[in-house]
Amino acid sequence: MVQVLINGLYLGAQYALIALGLTLIFALMNVLNFAHGQMYVIGGFITYVVYAQLGLPFIVAVVAAGASLAIIGALVELLLFRTVIKRSHREESTMLLAAAVAFLFDAVILLVFGEKQRGVPKIISGVFVSDALIIPYDRVVIAALAAASIAGFMAFVQFTKPGRAMRALAQDRIAAQLMGVNVDRYSMIGFALGAMLAGLAGALLVAITGVNAGIGGPISIKAFMMVMIGGAGVVGGAIAGGFILGMLESVGLTVLHAYGDITYLVIFAALMVFLAVRPNGLMGKPWG
Amino acid sequence: MIDRRSVFLSATFAPVAALTFALAGSPAWSADKELKIGFVGVTSGPAAAWGTSNVRSMQTRAAWLNETGGVKIGGDTYKVTIVTFDDQKDPKRAIAGMEKMVQEGIHYVVGPNVDDGAAAVRPVAEKNGVIYFPYAFPKELYTKPASNAVLGMIANYQSGPAIYKYLKDNKGVKKVAFVAANESDPLSQRDSGVAAAKALGLDVIADTDTYQTGTRDFTPVLTPIVQLKPDLVVLSGVAPADAPLLIRATRELGYKGLLSTETAQDAKVLQEGAADLADGFISVGGASTPEIRSTTMEEFIARYTKMFGEYNDESNTKCYALEYIVDTLQANPKAIDNVEEFKKTMDSFTAPNPYLKDPNAKLSYVGATSFGQKRQVAVPMVVNIFKGGKFETLFVGQVD
User: Fold this and answer.
1) Cβ of B269 and A117 within 8 Å?
2) I need a surface site. Which of A194, B69, B158, B252 has the fewest CB within 10 A?
3) Which residues of chain B neighbour A8 with C-beta distances below 8 Å?
């Protein structure tokens, strides 16, 4: 059972990192970023190129992926979302735009990086083995880096001027504007940060799970599930949602293993019941 | 009367016409008719690798044939053109794709890549006189009254029993566990694999474990299976993208037994995703291994690599479909626009297999045992074992 719980915790850490950027963008701009999974994929492929093909250190690849996605995110906000948000008051406009960006990224990724699954050399070899637990060391390293990324992000939004400005934006956009917060600037920074988190998640997890051009959609769906469990737009909720989903999968696949293909059926049914009882998720209130 | 406009037109088009006539004399331009061959399958999304390797194999071979003057069918020479349609693994789009092929006057189509797509296009193909080569296993597509589908590869219910028997006899396998994606193709392959294993007297200790499409970390899925200590874990219908992740998770959980699948895999993908943890992994290929392939196959791989930057080992099987279509049309030129003639020829068709070094290797249609009629291409059933970053031949079987 220790193995099952550790599997769940590790899976939860992965999921939390993936969901964080999605919920940040939603909190700041009320945009459901359907291209979040594709941003994760781009981060994974940049790491593949820098680390596996160019032979540079893994940490350089992770930084390159994060920086590239931050730039891509800033450009997407500046050139696409800002224009649409200013011209249209209908929420579905940004949803359609996000879906279009997702399809565009899917096509570009397939053209640039090809159709094959890609993997990188292990960042650290060896497996910890005891009577109750087996865990590869690279997973421990990646989990630690993921936790450090989450902590760094939380510190940034808590203790820096841009972080405070973004929290103000998330709480009340108009009030923040009246208090002198530059909405355009911090929206762009927020979107760039959200995209960077997606890229960082892809960059870190490529060392464990590899990456391929087609996984953007499924990654986005799981990220939305976590955000819905935790409460849309709440950072703590995204982290909680990630760990809950990870634990549900790990325990469910073990406990329900004898009953056939029902683990995900049970998870989705439970999610529907949960949302019927608590439609705003666990912490469903404005972020901040 | 010669005016300035006439002079201008003559000056413009005369060189173009001269160039056209000059080029028409070279081999690449000697084909005076066009033979369109269609492809309907998945070239985007998580399963993009399956259809992409099909399309690229066809495009590589077509370019090669055209470069050497086209293909001679009856008294005519044809330039081969590949018309492609991405069905996105959606049966509704597969139907639209097959209808597009009909509108283009195409009678021979490669694909679709999955069971539901192949079943969906059947009415369109049968109504409009199209022969299609699916990479899908439902037997009803190939057994009477169906007659327009030709299985483009070895089915898992043909290779599975051979692999399990080999491992039972040579590796002492007794306990088998199956794991599959929660999708129609892998689940049906798992079920037929379970039936085959039971028929051989093997103890099936896990046959209900599944994973969602898009799963990236398989450790939770595999933990209960590894705890059962099977001798063999079968990854039923596993996609090339998932295979290295499943292998890696299984090995990292301490599993020491055998791993196999009945689907084709790519050596580089396995090497990058699982490295030495994939050593000993058993899969099925076509004319894949250096031990059996001909110089023509070597050149095919070189041309494919030159055209697309990187070869895909799945193409070791997928190189065959276009070869069968062209060679059958050459055997019976009346089939060029009449699929009933094509069907008649299938029963007796035979031609040298250009991709194998064995001079006695032949292309022919098989499937009489599995389907009651010859509705399958004869591809060598090469069971591979992955070692040190490449495939080695474990054994070679045949389907009749």
Assistant:
1) yes
2) B69
3) 220
Query: Which one is the CATH code of A2-277: 1.10.8, 3.30.1360, 1.10.3470, 3.10.170?
Result: 1.10.3470
The beta-carbon neighbor of B48 closest among A14, A213, A218 is A213
Answer whether A30 touches B (CB < 8 Å). no
Along chain A (288 residues), what's the average pLDDT of each consecutive run of 10 residues? 85 88 86 93 97 95 97 96 88 90 93 89 86 85 88 89 88 87 91 94 92 90 90 86 90 81 86 90 67
Give the total residue count for chain B. Answer: 400
Asked if A134 and B254 come within 8 Å (Cβ–Cβ), the reply is: yes
Residue ranges per domain, chain A?
A: 2-277
A224: distance to nearest CA of chain B, Å?
A: 14
The Cα of B207 is separated from the nearest Cα of chain A by a number of Å equal to 8
Tokens of B345: 């020829």
Amino acid at B347: D
- Please report the ipTM that was assigned to this predicted complex: 0.81
Domains of chain B, start order: 29-153+290-379 (3.40.50.2300), 156-263 (3.40.50.2300)
Please state, in angstroms and as integers, the Cα–Cα distance from residue B381 to each residue in B34, B213, B294, B315, following that order: 33, 28, 16, 14
| Total residue count of chain A as it appears in this document | 288
**Nearest-CA residue of chain A relative to B274?**
A119
As a whole number of angstroms, the distance between CA A257 and CA A260 comes to 6
* Among A36, A34, A27, A29, residue whose Cα is nearest residue A86: A29
